[in-house]
Automatic annotation (TrEMBL), chain A:
Residues 12-156 form the Aspartate/ornithine carbamoyltransferase carbamoyl-P binding domain. HAMAP family: Asp_carb_tr (MF_00001). Its EC number is 2.1.3.2. Residues 164-310 form the Aspartate/ornithine carbamoyltransferase Asp/Orn-binding domain. This is Aspartate carbamoyltransferase. L-aspartate binds at K92, R177, R232. Pathway: Pyrimidine metabolism; UMP biosynthesis via de novo pathway; (S)-dihydroorotate from bicarbonate: step 2/3. Keywords: Pyrimidine biosynthesis, Transferase. One of its GO terms (biological process) is 'de novo' pyrimidine nucleobase biosynthetic process. It comes from Sulfuriferula multivorans. Belongs to the aspartate/ornithine carbamoyltransferase superfamily. ATCase family.
TrEMBL record, chain B:
The gene is pyrR. It holds the Pfam family Pribosyltran. This is Bifunctional pyr operon transcriptional regulator/uracil phosphoribosyltransferase PyrR. Keywords: Glycosyltransferase, Transferase. The keyword Ion transport does not apply. It comes from Sulfuriferula multivorans. GO terms for molecular function: uracil phosphoribosyltransferase activity. Its EC number is 2.4.2.9. Gene3D superfamilies: 3.40.50.2020. NCBIfam families: PRK05205.1-1, PRK05205.1-5. PANTHER family: BIFUNCTIONAL PROTEIN PYRR. It is an enzyme of class 2 (transferase).
Length: 317, 164
């Protein structure tokens, strides 16, 4: 049984996009669309989650994700508490659960969890009271479902449909929970061709089984793409010598205007942030006319509002 | 036995006649999704209103959200003019408990502070639960609480009222 679904098939937690049916993904994207105008109003709030308490549990640092979750919750009129919990390598399951139990005793309704260990959000979700929902805001290398969803929302906004697209994900797929979430969502939503482009050392083994085409050459992989997603080179997660140097990486895998020209002329460029300019992406591309990197951030608020509203509305049986 | 309900288009024409003398250039017509928008579109045309038509989806303002969750097909609200100081004519198909109208007024105030809001409904079926009454009603009747009046739009655009 999928731990993030209720017995009736509705969403109970959002932990991963792996295994979520297309109907739920589309429902979230449609709901996000209807939240888009809230940010433009005189009063940038709707009263849906009035009286609900949402805890941002960040065991790993984040600026953009935490902030957009906070804004999203506030636009839904929820009360938000941010906890940046510095975690030591000794942090074990017990300690996390103690934290969670204490917050539940403060009448929490929802936990938004970011953790360096894969599976942390699942672990919390398995151990919370029935009225509490958990949203995974990134766990280790595993999953970052709201980022994946906001990327799908961005693609749909700029490209309209999924069924006729070629999408390339470029860079450090090995360490990227974002890439895993994107691949699951893209294939579920019916994108016929998903490519990953990276050196062999930055691809997980068996990535082909996720339904993607693998390229080790950037130029060949970009040819004919509608969407180019660049990934951050996650040097802080690198163990051992996977790459000679950042300069060397940029030479072969950095997205420059000349390389982008190989994709379709109307291709969009995305990046989940934070960017390493001059490593995985050239500033000229990041700030160029094909870049939709800042709209991604704006859309992230509406998408997170949608997820929170759907979870909060569905859990009070 | 299906009760005899008046023709929706006749009621809309009657509503338009009642509203016409009160219309000013400052009046902004806003229909509530879905049936209220159909009625508002027709009133807007009959009254030759020069202002654009506004639409409101009150899903984010419902008072039963925590019980029944979010409506699966929320449509975006579209209020193309600044509400500050406007005279708003709020339009819905059926007035029952009044909760939809309350939610709509809450939403309108999140866009600005209108000078006034008046309510026009096609049918006032009774069963009010809030101190909300229509300024204009095409038809007034009392329907038992276990029955519903529905407005539907046929493929040819014709509106029809049914009691079930």
């Amino acid at each position: 049984m999928n731990p993030q679904l209720n017995p009736d098939g509705s969403l109970r937690h959002l932990l991963t996009l792996d295994g979520l049916p297309r109907t739920i993904l589309t429902h979230i994207l449609d709901t996000a669309e209807s939240f888009m105008d809230v940010g433009e109003r005189e009063v940038k709030k709707v009263p849906l989650l009035r009286g609900k308490s949402i805890f941002n549990l960040f065991f790993e640092p984040s600026t953009r994700t935490r902030t957009t979750f906070e804004i999203a919750a506030k636009r839904l009129s929820a009360d938000v508490v941010n906890l940046n919990i510095a975690t030591s390598s000794q942090t074990k399951g017990e300690a996390i659960l103690d934290t969670v139990d204490n917050l539940a005793a403060m009448h929490a309704d929802m936990f938004i969890v970011r953790h360096a260990q894969s599976g942390a959000a699942h672990f919390i979700a398995r151990n919370v009271a029935p009225h509490i929902s958990v949203i995974n805001a990134g766990d280790g290398r595993h999953s970052h479902p709201t980022q994946g969803l906001l990327d799908m929302f961005t693609i749909r906004r700029f490209k309209g449909e999924f069924h006729n697209l070629t999408v390339a994900i470029v860079g450090d797929v090995l360490h990227s929970r974002v890439a895993r979430s994107q691949i699951h969502a893209l294939t579920t939503l019916g994108v016929p061709e998903v490519r990953v482009i990276a050196p062999k050392t930055l691809l997980p083994t068996g990535v082909e089984q996720m339904g993607v085409k693998v390229y080790h050459d950037l130029e060949a992989g970009l040819h004919g793409c509608d969407v180019v997603i660049t990934l951050r080179l996650q040097s802080e997660r690198m163990k051992g010598a996977l790459l000679p140097s950042a300069q060397e990486y940029f030479k072969f895998f950095g997205l420059t205007p000349a390389k982008l020209a190989l994709a379709k002329p109307d291709a969009i460029v995305m990046h989940p942030g934070p960017m390493n300019r001059g490593v995985e992406i050239d500033s000229e591309v990041a700030d160029g006319p094909q870049s939709v990197i800042l709209p991604q951030v704006t859309y992230g608020i509406a998408v997170r509002m949608a997820v929170m509203a759907i979870l909060a509305g569905g859990t009070t049986a | 036995m299906p009760a005899l309900l008046p023709d929706a288009n006749t009621l809309i024409a009657r509503l338009a006649d009642a509203i016409a003398p009160t219309l000013t250039p400052n009046t902004f017509i806003v229909g509530i999704h879905t049936g209220g928008v159909w009625v508002a579109e027709r009133l807007h045309a009959l009254l030759r209103c020069t202002q654009p038509l506004g639409t409101l989806d009150i899903s984010f303002y419902r008072d039963d959200f925590s019980r029944i969750g979010l409506h699966p097909q929320v449509k975006p609200s579209n209020l193309p003019v600044d509400l500050e100081g406007r005279d708003i004519l709020l339009v819905d198909d059926v007035l029952h408990s009044g909760r939809t109208v309350r939610a709509a007024m809450n939403e309108l105030f999140d866009y600005g502070r209108p000078a006034s809001i008046r309510l026009a409904v096609l049918v006032d079926r009774g069963g009010h639960e809030l101190p909300i009454r229509p300024d204009f009603a095409g038809h007034t009747l009392t329907v038992p609480s276990n029955q519903n009046i529905n407005l539907s739009q046929l493929d040819d655009g014709h509106l029809t009222l049914t009691l079930a």
